Amino acid sequence: MFSIEAPSYDEVGLVIRAAIEGNLGSVHRSVNDLAGQAALAAT
Q1: Which residues, at least 6 apart from 13, have a Cβ–Cβ distance to it below 8 Å?
Q2: Whole-prediction pTM value?
Q3: 2, 4, 13, 26: which could form a disulfide with 18 (CB 3.0–4.6 Å)?
Q4: Spatial contact of 30 and 19, defined as CB atoms under 8 Å apart
Q5: Which helix (H) or strand (E) holds 6?
Q6: Going by C-beta distance under 8 Å and a sequence separation of 6 or more, which residues neighbour residue 15?
Q7: Regarding predicted confidence, which is higher, 25 or 18?
Q8: pLDDT bracket for residue 22 (50, 70, 90)
Q9: Cα separation of 25 and 36, whole Å?
Q10: Is residue 8's pLDDT more than 60?
Q11: Are 10 and 17 in contact (CB under 8 A)?
Q12: 31, 5 in Cβ contact below 8 A?
């Protein structure tokens, strides 16, 4: 399990906002950033 910090909630908000706006490029980038953070936290 990995912990979620306050900035991560902000990132999730950006992903949701970008998805609503249809900006798939930003969604893809944000998802990759979150995946990278999760990978670092898992190590």
Answers
A1: none
A2: 0.35
A3: 26
A4: no
A5: helix 6-21
A6: 26, 27, 30, 31, 34
A7: 18
A8: confident
A9: 17
A10: yes
A11: no
A12: no
